[in-house]
Amino acid sequence: MQKFLRKNAPAYVFLAPWLIGFFLLAIFPILASLYLSFTQYDVVRPPEWVGIENYQYMFEFDYRFWKSMQVTFTFVVISVPAKLIFALAVAMLLDKGIRAVGWYRALFYLPSILGGSIAVAILWRQLFDYNGVINSVLRFFGGDGPYWLSDPRYSLWTLIVLAVWQFGSPMLIFLAGLRAIPQDLYEAAEIDAAGPARKFFAITVPLLAPVIFFNLVLQMIEAFKSFSGAFIISGGTGAPLDSLLFFTVYLFNEAFSYFRMGYASALGWVLLLIIAAFTAIAFWTSKYWVHYENERG
Amino acid sequence: MASVTLSSVVKAYGNVPVIHGIDLAVNSGEFLVLVGPSGCGKSTLLRMIAGLEEINDGTIAIGERIVNDLPASQRNLSMVFQSYALYPHMSVRKNLAFGLTNLRMPKDEISRRVTEAARILQIEPLMERKPRQLSGGQKQRVAIGRAIVREPQLFLFDEPLSNLDAELRVQMRVELAGLYQRLGTTMIYVTHDQTEAMTMATRIVVLNKGVVEQVGTPYELYNFPCNRFVATFIGSPKMNMLEATTADGAAEIAGIGKLKLPTGIPAKGPVSIGIRPEQIAIGDGGDLAIPGKVSLVEYLGSEIFVYVQLASGERLLVQAPGDARIRNGEPITLSISGHQAHYFDANGQRIGPKGKRQG
């Protein structure tokens, strides 16, 4: 043991910052939140063990939990495919060999860098405000825009548009994937009398499937965790009429507005399980539609 | 079957011309091989015929129809790519059927054609496999199968054998030749391998820097090359070249001696004398004896290649039977005959008979 320490101590000293960070900031909070999810804890008093009461309440009585699930699922189901389709469309345009493609790539990637930030969410609020830019443009053309943000019928759509606008990162991955498809397959298909649609569905989509799958999983996880846009635009409450009550916004309110840390921890674990389940489903289905070139079989 | 006619076909990438106005007539049912060094434009020419590459000027006609503006799919041709270009996510069967499905052919007919192609190419046991589960030779068979099922009027091959190992290449060469005899369809075949060109072609087109150097049967190209480029490009090992000046009905090869010119070769100005390695005899007995020293012997079994250093500084390559006892470093006498040699003028153009005899 002493010999081991003497030999390896310097290595562990250098590793220490990362190890301390990993255990203190990752493993410990994860385990603590699992424990807290079975307690009532308001930060002031020590946690009080309640067993599965938090989970029971969540599924049986908490209509806001179900509302937040509905909002989040609607957001995921619409925004993820829309974003992927848009990203793929732009990637295919850029793949056509447009001039100054580097500039376009940078330009299109920009929203992805800015997108997650508070500043853009605030900008979005200004754009879609009743007296904001969008409605001013509509009025200029003689129309009259609705209350985008305060009408529950439209509010979620503004966030879906915001999500789709941040298509840069999946677009770049799609572009790399498209570039990796050998050109002579398209030429062979051209001679084989395949039209553009047939080429897209019979060549591009199947050969891009690993990339589509990667983007799908990544964007799905991202969408389930989506927080800052909804938080800023709804003023932190999920308003109007809980139409922007994303799961994460609800969780945040439970934790930091009402200090129901135990319940918020339980919500956190449910979100984790939902994401894990959907990722698992995606992986399970992938063997039926994702073709890997170097796979042995 | 269809003929193909190229008239003044020009192709340039930006400001760089790659095909300089080519005229070429491919007869119906012919196996035409385009051969030339890399970068000579042979693949570009093939892709222009296929419709994968636009042409800048001139016309391409398949049969009677000018196809300049016709997409590849409507030119009624099939192409086999160097990389095979098999659809990696489809089974062999689907790869074969893909083009026919696109043409909305009845299922029975697709099935009949696919089965027939599989039988011809002996790939029946592989039909449900994916391309990644096939060897190089099997992939090439599938690629050829995909071309056959279309029953096109024209086959195009773009260096189809260059990704295969030597043994398989010879085997596939024989199979392709057999396939041609069986189908009798017009075939245009691109290769940089002159052995492929010589063995398979009914006619060969030698291309160099986007220009046709010579069109002819393998026999014509080998025995009557129209210029120095064709003379040295066709034939392996390469033709020897000796520089000489002519006077009084003979060619004076500097430092070696005088070679009497055969009739029909005018004696004026400088000439290049080309002699194939198998046309140089060992020992004296020809029109001109050349002394030298053996610098290298390559043993190939049935034959040997002897590199001979001449006193003039030049080096000759001689082909001799495999049982010839020749060793490195020993002195040797070679002899050449004037009537077996090829003569080229200062511009590299052939002087003398431009035979059209068939071999």
From TrEMBL, chain A:
It is a multi-pass membrane protein. It is found in: Cell membrane. It comes from the Bacteria. Coiled coil: none annotated. The keyword Transmembrane applies. Residues 69-282 form the ABC transmembrane type-1 domain. SUPFAM superfamilies: MalF N-terminal region-like, MetI-like. Belongs to the binding-protein-dependent transport system permease family. This is Sugar ABC transporter permease.
TrEMBL record, chain B:
Residues 4-234 form the ABC transporter domain. It comes from the Bacteria. One of its GO terms (molecular function) is ATP binding. Keywords: ATP-binding, Nucleotide-binding, Transport. PROSITE patterns: ABC_TRANSPORTER_1 (PS00211), ABC_TRANSPORTER_2 (PS50893). CDD domains: ABC_MalK_N (cd03301). SMART domains: AAA. Belongs to the ABC transporter superfamily. This is Sugar ABC transporter ATP-binding protein. It comes from Devosia nitrariae.
